[in-house]
Design a protein that fits this description.
five-stranded parallel beta sheet, about 40% helix, 2 domains, Asp/Orn_carbamoylTrfase, 11 helices, alpha/beta, globular, Rossmann fold, Asp_carbamoyltransf, four-stranded parallel beta sheet, transferase, EC 2.1.3.2
Length: about 325
């Protein structure tokens, strides 16, 4: 594996291999007073974030450090980007400094693919791997992988760790969500039956071509779901009125306590965060026994360790 740009680049075997590696790394760290593995000693991982992030940026940094890599964070505000330097020049500068992997988040869809192209060219030297940590409204592959890892853990604890055949609901602002796109592709690749649940105004053009079903009725779908993933309403990407008000959105598509009671007892509730409590999800549900939100955060570190391992340590694809 040279880069990780999209879950579309992963078939079921490759995705399962990454998830299995994450499980092995998690087990390797159990009981260690000092959570350090020598796997990536001498490697340099740079996180380059042009958008704000807590979970993704910090988990990549922790993942690198737990595997003994040298990790460096570059923010747009604290770099030459604020002086007008282009993404290309910034990336190639980091490559020239010896970066083995650049983890990038950027507001422009397709930016990670452009970076990979530059890195693979002669001017880029061809030695730096790119990980897409979210590009515009396009994709967020490591989020989909950690969500799949969380679902596998949950189902395994109840007798079967397989995602195949499970019905997974993804609810909310699909239009602006790179998380939704990556999850639909990955979960379908792993054999899940995926249903998108959203108001028509928050569905993208061409969604009927996605490998999933679409519904506008949350109440009708909840009783048949094996898991539900609530999405963040991305107000910062909205340049118009996509729904009348926050209250009306909550009434139609928020996961209240009453709605959560419609879910089967075994069904976990996921959310990529940050959560808008009271609108997308009730606080009692977000903090309740069915919530897998913190499990997602914990799995994020192990999954990103697995990604770095496969990219930088030459793990079999």
């Amino acid at each position: 594996m040279r880069h990780l740009l999209s879950v579309a680049d992963l078939d079921a075997a490759a995705a399962t291999g990454l998830l299995d590696t994450a499980d092995r790394l998690k087990q390797a760290l159990l009981g260690r007073e000092v959570r350090k593995l020598p796997t990536l000693r001498g490697r340099t991982v740079i996180t380059m974030f042009y958008e704000n992030s807590t979970r993704t940026r910090v988990s990549f940094e922790i993942a690198g450090k737990w595997m003994s890599a040298d990790t460096v964070n570059v923010s747009a505000s604290g770099s030459s980007v604020s002086k007008g330097e282009s993404l290309r020049d910034t990336a190639l500068t980091l490559s020239a400094m010896g970066a083995d992997c650049v983890v990038v988040r950027h507001p422009a869809s397709g930016s990670a693919h452009r970076l990979a192209g530059w890195m693979d060219s002669e001017i880029g030297g061809g030695h730096t791997s790119i990980v897409n940590a979210g590009d515009g409204t396009h994709e967020h592959p490591t989020q989909a992988l950690l969500d799949a890892a969380t679902l596998r853990d949950h189902f395994r604890a109840r007798g079967s760790g397989t995602i195949a055949g499970r019905r997974i609901g993804i609810v909310g602002d699909v239009l602006h969500s790179r998380v939704a796109r990556s999850n639909v592709l990955l979960l379908a690749t792993l054999g899940a039956d995926v249903v998108l649940i959203a108001p028509p105004t928050l569905l993208p053009v061409g969604v009927e071509q996605w490998p999933c079903r679409v519904s506008s009725s949350l109440d009708a779908e909840l009783p048949a779901l094996d898991a539900v993933m609530m999405l963040r309403v991305q107000a910062e990407r909205m340049h118009g009125a996509f729904f009348p008000s926050a209250r009306e959105y909550a009434v139609g598509y928020g996961l209240s306590e009453a709605r959560a009671a419609l879910l089967p007892e075994h069904a976990p509730v996921l959310h990529p965060g940050p959560m808008v409590r009271g609108m997308e999800i009730a606080p009692a549900v977000a903090d309740g026994p069915s919530s897998a939100v913190l499990a997602q955060v914990a799995n994020g570190v192990h999954v990103r360790m697995a990604v770095l391992y496969h990219l930088l340590a030459g793990a079999p694809e």
